[in-house]
Amino acid sequence: MDQIPEILLNTFRKYDTPTIINALDILDSKFRTKGFTTEQVVCADPSLPPIVGYARTATIRAASVVDPQKKRDRGIAYYEYVSSGPGPNISVIEDVDDSPGFGAFWGEVNTNIHNALGLLGVVTNGSVRDLDVLSPGFQVLAGKIGPSHAYVRIEETGKEVNIFGMNVRHNDLIHADRHGAVVIPKELAEGLPNAIKLMIRREKIILDACKSTDFDFEILKEAILKSSQIK
Fold first, then answer.
1. Deepest in the core among 19, 22, 173, 214, taking most CB within 10 A?
2. pTM greater than 0.85 (yes/no)
3. Distance CA 1, CA 189 (A)
């Protein structure tokens, strides 16, 4: 399944990333420890809804001098790449400098370029700047905030990258919000809505018990046991 039906993407957009990860864990226990970002991210706009789209991957560097022509050629090739395919796309960029985020690739100019090209946002271990003038509606999840672009440039496009423990390949399906990001395996996409419903039903038993006016340990214990029996 190369492209996920839009009806499924719309379903995934209704839920935050922790909910998606909890549901994925029901389908595959590896999601207890793999497949998601494991470091805190800087979210440029926490009010934005979750973004769900296909990964367009690249690496960047900023700490060393670069030939201007090479920088320009690689940048143009990158923009062509990220705007390819039916989408929706999300840029996923690994900063491979020894000190990631030394120079910011993301700011006023690049958020506007990517937004205009139709991308939903970016997930990166690099830095972001120009927080007050970023393109509205374009989500940025970054490793840090920094003031300079230094010698930042695209190194490679379309290769597998790692963002805070999350391995991402070209065209992987990404779900991201202010909490971080996760890769949704396409083979699990069809079963994910039912897993989400199951998880919500299990949690509801406990949450409803907590709202009881006579809530105590015994009520909690009973709710936990009932929750575990829901299949």
1. 173
2. yes
3. 9
